[in-house]
């Protein structure tokens, strides 16, 4: 496989994820809307499953394309019959995408690299804060006592950090809770203990690893709004779960609500690479703790469903004209092989004694000229495929006929490579 095939495979994987991600987002939105009164743990599981599919589906599609040794030889993981015509059969924007596929991949790689650098800087900041800031023996003892009550068996370090306005949790093997130095003197001790109980709930559930995985998915698939929306729902439900655990541990939900209320008055910044007590919507969390049975469902929860459903419907709608055009063709376009040179056997493939049959697709215009082309079925050797394509694309064709009139349509040409 050459570099061009690799770039094209990545590019078409990113493009196909536009409709795949929309479908996943729509399914997750419907499920969460139906489960709006269910436990936070169940909604969290649904959202995590959706984000996992957002990564697994394009990954599987990329593997299929790489195995087929060509960007146009593997369809989507599911729904290929319905979607591939919209992406590959004669649409104007398909030609535009093919022409700029390398630029699309380059822009994606540049943005993903910038986000990866941002994530690395965040991890470096956390590591430096965890190792370089000062501790507090009295609060470390309180944290140890709370950890034992919460069932956390691993040692949990506490560090006081200047310039931070909300406690955050980082690390999995050696977890650490970063506490703003200002909170130690500016917040009543029993309220700060409530916030620490919330952080210990994250440590107990190993939420840091899931949060880190979220950042990886966001970095790779940053261009899709469904990814950010699903990831945001995961963080919201995770905060609700940690609130519930802390409230049960403290035996005082109002105490945690009061601590969050005090925290809301502070000017804080959120570090997405760590678990923070200020995550999610603080006022909704406070209301949920104080009045858990009075949360009426909002019509706004259905907005993502409507938007993603409309996007998915638009993708499938675009597939229909191309299919209808193919059905209306009475006579396929025919190639005039005297108008173009015979493909020459690539030297490397000749020496390796490669043989095979390649099936090529050509979009023939009203003037008989090829407008677009693709490899529909590989011979098994990229050199043979490209040699046949580059030669036959120069042939003139007799246009396809529909109701006796020339029309633009796709036609298939097979070329057999055989050593004598």
Instruction: Please tell me what the overall shape is.
Output: elongated
User: Please, what is the average pLDDT?
Assistant: 79
Count of alpha and pi helical runs: 15
Low-confidence stretches: 69-91, 267-272, 319-327
Give the assembly state of these chains.
Answer: single chain
User: What spatial order of strands do you see in the largest sheet?
Assistant: 1-3-2-4
Listing every helix as H and every strand as E from the N terminus to the C terminus, the arrangement reads HHHHHHEEEHHHHHEHHEHEEHEEEE
What percentage of residues falls in helices of 4 or more residues?
Answer: 55-70%
How many domains? 3
Would you count the extended β strands for me?
A: 11
Radius of gyration computed on alpha carbons: 29 Å
How would a crystallographer describe the biggest sheet?
A: 4 strands, mixed
Instruction: Report the β-strand fraction as a percent range.
Output: 5-15%
SSE class: alpha+beta
Distance between the termini: 26 Å
Describe the protein.
The protein contains 15 helices and 11 strands. The protein has 420 residues and is an alpha+beta fold. It has 3 domains: 1-99 and 296-326, no CATH class; 118-220 and 232-278, no CATH class; 334-417, TolA/TonB C-terminal domain (2-Layer Sandwich). The strands form 4 sheets. Strands 1-3-2-4 form a 4-stranded mixed sheet, sandwiched between helices. A 3-stranded antiparallel sheet has the order 7-6-11, with helices on one face. The model is unreliable at 69-91, 267-272 and 319-327 (pLDDT under 50).
């Amino acid at each position: 496989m050459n570099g061009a095939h690799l770039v094209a495979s990545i590019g078409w994987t990113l493009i196909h994820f536009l409709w795949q991600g929309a479908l996943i987002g729509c399914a997750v939105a419907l499920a969460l809307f139906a489960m709006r009164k269910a436990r936070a743990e169940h909604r969290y599981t649904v959202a995590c499953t959706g984000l996992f599919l957002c990564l697994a589906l394009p990954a599987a599609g990329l593997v299929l394309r790489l195995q087929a040794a060509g960007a146009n030889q593997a369809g989507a993981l599911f729904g290929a019959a319905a979607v591939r015509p919209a992406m590959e059969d004669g649409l104007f924007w398909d030609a535009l995408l093919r022409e700029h596929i390398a630029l699309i991949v380059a822009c994606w790689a540049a943005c993903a690299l910038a986000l990866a650098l941002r994530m690395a800087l965040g991890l470096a900041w956390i590591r430096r804060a965890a190792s370089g800031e000062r501790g507090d023996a009295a609060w470390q003892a309180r944290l140890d006592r709370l950890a034992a009550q919460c069932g956390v068996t691993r040692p949990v370090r506490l560090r006081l950090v200047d310039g931070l306005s909300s406690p955050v949790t980082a690390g999995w093997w050696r977890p650490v809770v970063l506490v703003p130095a200002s909170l130690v003197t500016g917040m009543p001790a029993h309220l700060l203990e409530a916030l620490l109980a919330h952080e210990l709930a994250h440590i107990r559930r190993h939420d840091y690893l899931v949060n880190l995985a979220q950042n990886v998915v966001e970095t790779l698939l940053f261009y899709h709004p469904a990814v950010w929306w699903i990831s945001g729902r995961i963080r919201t439900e995770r905060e609700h779960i940690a609130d519930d655990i802390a409230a049960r541990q403290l035996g005082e939900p109002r105490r945690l609500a009061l601590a969050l209320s005090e925290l809301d008055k502070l000017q804080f910044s959120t570090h997405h690479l760590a678990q923070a007590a200020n995550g999610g919507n603080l006022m909704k969390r406070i209301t949920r703790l104080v009045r858990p049975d009075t949360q009426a469902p909002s019509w706004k929860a259905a907005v993502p469903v409507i938007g993603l459903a409309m996007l998915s419907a638009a993708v499938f709608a675009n597939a229909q004209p191309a299919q209808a055009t193919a059905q209306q063709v009475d006579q396929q376009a025919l190639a005039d092989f005297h108008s173009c040179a015979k493909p020459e056997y690539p030297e490397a493939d000749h020496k390796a004694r490669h043989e095979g049959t390649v099936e090529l697709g050509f979009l023939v215009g009203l003037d008989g000229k090829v407008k677009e082309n693709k490899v529909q079925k590989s011979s098994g050797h990229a050199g043979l495929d490209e040699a046949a394509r580059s030669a036959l694309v120069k042939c003139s064709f007799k246009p396809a006929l529909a109701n006796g009139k020339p029309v633009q349509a796709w036609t298939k040409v097979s070329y057999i490579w055989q050593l004598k």
